């Protein structure tokens, strides 16, 4: 999707790193992790401003998930729900689940077992000044991925305002250093 908020760069070294949003935008990176044998999932969310400063990080365990797609959709819902609470700017939501991003970009809701969740995401979008969806590579979504894995592994839920947990602080700093080089 062409964008004001994404600040896309064409330089090859930036293609696989987190890219900060443009002024007036916040970036919400989300990811879901799912284990089919335990049916346990994890959701990871990090919201950052144009400087890369953390607005919040969160993770949530999901018990009895039906599929990886369901967990990815719940990650988007969680990220947008938190953005409605803590962000006043327009939002770029990034996920490494390209099928979900395509579904969210389409008008109307496809008939699927996720249709109610997709409707909820669209309702949340109406509570924000503007939302863009972007599919990115996993290498650009490392922090959200680690948070989702943390939720699944530790089987608990947490949210940190204006910072990240110690176990991923270095990864957050590394992503921001890479994008400013």
From TrEMBL:
Residue intervals of the RNase H type-1 domain: 29-150
- The membrane-spanning stretches of this chain are none
Question: Which InterPro entries does the record cross-reference, listed alphabetically?
Answer: RNase_H-like, RNase_H-like_dom_plant, RNaseH-like_sf, RNaseH_domain, RNaseH_sf
- Which residues does UniProt call coiled coil? none
According to the UniProt entry, its GO molecular function terms are: nucleic acid binding; RNA-DNA hybrid ribonuclease activity
Q: Which SUPFAM superfamilies match?
A: Ribonuclease H-like
Can you say what this protein is called? RNase H type-1 domain-containing protein
Q: Which organism is it from?
A: Eleusine coracana subsp. coracana
Question: What does the record give as the organism's lineage?
Answer: Eukaryota, Viridiplantae, Streptophyta, Embryophyta, Tracheophyta
